[in-house]
Amino acid sequence: MANIYKYKNIKSSVSHQSTEALVEQFNSQVGKRCWASSRAAHNTALIDTLIDRGVNISAVYDGTSISFKEHVVLNEDLNKLSLV
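RE: above sequence
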């Protein structure tokens, strides 16, 4: 229950940020191995918000798992992530 509350609060917060800011947040998570519940809620809300905006995130998300192994960039149309 607490994780759902965290997720909803974070989702509300990130939904007000620019797509570029969300990509910066994604990149700040690259390489971090610790996966606490707060980080999981943040990263899930981040990915869900990008999906809601119609951004193609297939470079890092296959519908099941998210990869934070590499940094990403956003294309000029702000609708697709690519690995750096």
